[in-house]
Design brief:
mainly alpha
Length: 233
């Protein structure tokens, strides 16, 4: 039986409404120009003192990435060997869920590959050679290496928003716990990269929104296919 706390039949448009409602807030943050202000909290004219901090670099960057791959491997295994609330999801839905996680990661990497935005540690005011240019200034080179938007490290956690979205169908309690854990981890990893000079806060915010949008979109498609299949039987 599904968890009694799971919302009954939350429609796709409600999920998309929540995603859409977050978009103006992200745009307002971008317009505020506070990204650079926050970068100055961690950076100096000589660079970012925490860039090569052993704990941040080895444990919260490299270690977190390895844990993310391990978590993805376990989630893939759950397609055939589910545990806990995942047993209440049909295998086809578990496949869609894993697909959403992978698609989120791939999309973030693809956008980064096309981005001409450089990282804070590349800026001239922090000892580099690049000029600050908004990540929305498409095609404008800033003199740096680019490929810094959105935040790839934060996607290690935010990609698992798909797990929370799918769990909402069977267990509101489990879904809320996953949402909370993913958000805490995602913003923690984003903060790590901010402190090291690798990203701005907006990169973390947009990464979360992109992953959330992918999850909600694919969940809607999966639900429609499931409903269509039932109607034909």
């Amino acid at each position: 039986m599904p968890d009694s706390q799971a919302p009954p039949g939350r429609s796709g448009w409600q999920r998309f409404s929540a995603v859409a409602a977050a978009l103006p807030l992200l745009l307002l943050w971008d317009a505020s120009g506070l990204d650079l202000t926050l970068a100055h909290w961690f950076g100096t004219p000589e660079g970012f003192p925490l860039q090569y901090n052993p704990f941040l670099q080895s444990w919260l960057h490299d270690g977190a990435r390895q844990l993310g791959w391990a978590a993805l491997a376990l989630l893939i295994a759950s397609v055939w060997h589910p545990i806990g609330p995942l047993t209440q999801l049909p295998r086809s839905q578990r496949v869609w869920m894993v697909t959403a996680v992978v698609a989120s990661l791939v999309l973030v990497v693809a956008i980064k590959a096309m981005s001409r935005t450089s990282c804070p540690w590349d800026l001239a005011e922090f000892g580099g050679s690049a000029a600050y240019v908004s990540h929305w200034a498409w095609g404008v080179k800033d003199g740096g290496d680019g490929r810094c938007f959105p935040g790839g490290h934060a996607s290690t956690a935010f990609a698992f928003l798909a797990l929370a979205v799918w769990l909402r169908d069977v267990s509101g309690t489990a879904s809320n716990r996953v949402y909370l854990a993913v958000l805490i981890l995602g913003f923690t990893l984003g903060w790590v990269q901010q402190a090291r000079g690798a990203h701005y806060l907006s990169h973390t915010l947009w990464t979360g929104w992109i992953c959330w949008t992918v999850a909600v979109t694919l969940h809607s498609l999966a639900s429609r296919r499931s409903t269509s299949g039932l109607s034909r039987t």
